Amino acid sequence: MAKQPAAVVGVGQTHHRAKRLDVSMAGLCREAIDRALEDAGMTLDEIDAIVVGKAPDLFEGVMMPELFLAEALGAAGKPLLRVHTAGSVGGSTAIVASSLVQAGVHKKVLTVAYEKQSESNAMWALSVPLPFNMPVHAGAGGYFAPHVRSYIRRSEAPTHVGAIVAAKDRNNALKNPYAHLHNEGTTVESVLASQMLWDPIRYDETCPSSDGACALVIVDEDTAKASPNPAWIHGTVMRSEATTAAERDQVNPQASRDAAAALWKQAGITSPIDEIDCAEIYVPFSWFEPMWLESLGFAEENGGGWRLTESGGTAMDGVLPVNCSGGVLSSNPIGASGMLRFGEAALQVRGAAGEHQVDGARKALGHAYGGGSQFFAMWVVGAEKPSN
Amino acid sequence: MRDVAVVGFAQRQMPEFDGSPTCVEMLVPLLAECYEQTGWTRRDIGFWCSGSSDYLAGRSFSFVSAVDAIGVIPPVNESHVEMDLAWAMYEAWLKIQTGEVDTALVYAFGKSSAGVLRRTLGLQLEPYTMTPLWPDTVSLAGLQARAGIDAGVWDETAMAEVANRSLTDAEKNDWSIRKGGSSVEELLAKPMYADPLRKHDCSPVTDGAAAIVLAADDKARDVRDKPAWISGLSHYIDPMGMGTRDLTRSPSAERAAAAVDLNGVEVAELHAPFSHQELILRRELGLADDVRINPSGGALTSNPMFSGGGIRIGEVATRIWSGEVAKGVGHATSGPALQQNLLCTLVSTPEGASN
Question: Is the N-terminal amide bond of B74 cis, ω within 30° of 0?
């Protein structure tokens, strides 16, 4: 049996904040789930299966929290899966949920991804000393700064390009009521004036640490017919590579390039920059926008990315609006961040992105990555049902 | 649905693994064994999925080291579940059903001896009201066993019979870490461990890993004369709250049983880490008296966390490959007191394979 068509008909997310002390983990997830179900015009009773995703359990201090959450998530008496693939997990979780429909196993699947970082301490959770492993103790910024420096050197990028990305995403976030950061008046100059944290990454070029959740309702073709604006899934991909190896290119990892090539092929896309109307790309540190633009094939390697960003091409009115929601730079509930990218891409092609809607968006990319730039999850969604 | 079969299975079980909690040293030879069984190389695998727990390894991203171990340059199509091997296999089975890939290798690992397992597993409980009391999982199983005895659903003799049969069968399983049957009387004379559980009613703390290879249609027939075809695969979860469910039952196991066809099952490998849990599962699955239960010795004699469930499926598969049985069922559980359950029926002929 061939792959069954699948579509997103419900998207929900929480108001992301540094500490959501007003809700428990279950309450946080339900906030996103209830919004997704309302959007889909469904109740929990109609859902066949639930797929949960989140980053390391040490971030909240609960081992396999989906077990205690099962009842609150409406999974009691249903199948429940729990995915964990590092920072890409929100994307991977959405892909596993899609595969339940595409395989013809279920018709209505609910997926939710979350992180409640305020329950524990992410820096501690990432810094447990390991035998025979080099201690990083620098957080993700310290880990990725050398990759960014390498990109700047290779591509001869002007050093203010990161600030252009940060100012753009923080201003886009002002149009997204759910975004964690609503920093009015952010400009390239104000970003450049902010504290240098991990050279060349400044404070304002760094993602926040957020509590938040995102949920999607993914359904089969028949169910999608009832939706006024389904976002059809045109392609999904996951790729992984090693953390350390002499031949690795951390600036433009092969897993990323391979994933993009497989995704475009699956979605029948030959020129991404022309055929994709907007993209939600996982950019936790500003410079990853130009880096991923190149790796994904939107721009030429070694400079095409920063030129596209610098030209304004990734702004709301550019040739390829990137992170109109404000992106990871404005909200980062780690486990949910990937699903937010996937969900925001779906909102765009459904014409349901509100104030940050790109006019006439018909095809969009959702992208997530994790680990040491080694785990990738991506999808393409479209307003039309795919022909392939 | 495509016809998908288990065509490879390798396992390691031991009381204490002398290596890292990410078990990479155990995974490399395990994967080599899978290649040997199938005649494949790494590049013949269309999809990878692993199962493990960060809390068991005592670190975040424990699966990342495992990914390094399988050799992922060039990159692979890969995923991970914070679940037992059986659910990793479920995700891989889905991927094959989408038609994107024809083959998959799934693996799982856990070094339970690195901590105090029954206390580590206590961290699975509801964190706001239950974990602070830190009831350990053996004690919770004891409460469940007591509930069944008090309700007259089973008694200590029935539990000892399960243990005695398991320990006797384990003598024929090189991987079992506890073995040697005696008699029900002898077992009942042993001291209590977590009343009403004696030590032999509880699975031993076990380190280990396992891998399963799946293949679709002709790919499976190329590997084996008698692939173990998956004719049914189903899983469900119940609420965790101990006070809100009847601990003598397992509704999720009953639902899973209703979703697959258990008629004609000759062998059942049940993932019952406590003797009374086998009694619950036999009832929920409605298994006939002539069904052979846990010929491997089962989880009571060896139970590596995160591969213990998948190993049950692998054990049934090996009996299909050898022609010993034509139909069997493998079961996996997760969560305290049989909260989450998966059933996988395997048959020697794919005709009528359905889900």
Answer: yes
